[in-house]
Design a protein that fits this description.
By secondary structure, the protein is of the alpha+beta class. It contains six helices and five strands.
């Protein structure tokens, strides 16, 4: 266990993670070096240990265990806005992996026209590489479509 001035050691930007988190976990690996885990609960102490997973080829993974009053930072738009605002001068790529779920009503029908139309929708949802197209979903548009289907 170490005890250090966290602001002086890691910078104000990194320290700010503790303003919204109960716990911060950093897993990191540099080229052929060992993989390490740094953990802190923002009380001024931290631990550093060798990571037993060894699953990062190179780079850093930061996990924030958000406080209950900071859950709004889990929203995709909030994350994108923060990264855009505070990474203007960072010269390496920052990746945000996003998973979206969409509920759809499924109707069973014998009508061939509806089946053909459903097949076209599936074809349109794939890009030229055969990968699914990721779309922004507007809740109001979805509600209107559902209303029209029910009529």
């Amino acid at each position: 266990r170490g005890r250090i001035s966290m602001i002086g050691q890691f910078g104000v930007g990194f320290y700010s993670a503790h303003l919204v988190s109960e716990k911060v976990v950093v897993r990191t690996k540099h080229n052929e070096d060992e993989q390490y885990v740094w953990e802190s609960t923002a009380g001024g102490t931290f631990t550093i240990r060798t990571d037993t997973n060894q699953d990062i080829p190179r780079g850093t993974e930061i996990v924030l265990h958000l406080r209950e009053d900071a859950k709004n930072y889990c929203q995709e738009k909030s994350i994108k806005d923060l990264v855009k605002k505070h990474s203007e001068f960072i010269s390496f790529p920052i990746s945000l992996y996003v998973t979206k779920e969409e509920e759809k009503e499924v109707e069973i029908s014998d009508d061939e026209d509806e089946d053909a139309e459903a097949g076209k929708e599936k074809e349109q949802e794939m890009d030229e590489d055969g990968k699914p197209v990721i779309k922004e979903v507007d809740e109001e548009d979805q509600k209107e479509k559902k209303k029209r289907r029910r009529r």
